[in-house]
Structure prediction request, 139 residues.
Amino acid sequence: MSATDREIILKVKQWIVYGDEDLQLARHGLKLASSAPYRLIAYHAQQCAEKYFKAYLIYYRIDFPYTHNISQLLELCPDKREWGASLEEAEELTPFAITARYPGEDEAVTEAEAKRAIGITEEVCATIRAALLKKGITL
Prediction:
């Protein structure tokens, strides 16, 4: 394995770690019970999924735009025919990247929506982890 390949794999793993931290924070937010900030839980779930897609693109050395648009990132993924259809629901996460963060742009996020965002993100994580494992990257 070349030094460049090792650097790429290190970057992939760094993006995955950052994504896992977002998901950890989203899950923890649900434990806050009645004061749970559902909009932020959904935001961090979206951020995790976004980072996983970007990690996958980094593995393939595909330049991606600095976007929060999950559809756009999914479209860039090679091999998506194998698993892309199973992740189409991830497109639902895109609005949480913006509307959950800025006053005037925010829309109420319910507990059910926050939990669904986490569920979708967990599917993204599992699918991309499996795809990377097939390429020999253990996380």
Summary: Helices lie at 3-30, 38-59, 70-76, 80-83, 111-134. The chain has a mean pLDDT of 90. Residues 75 and 84 are 9 Å apart (CA to CA).
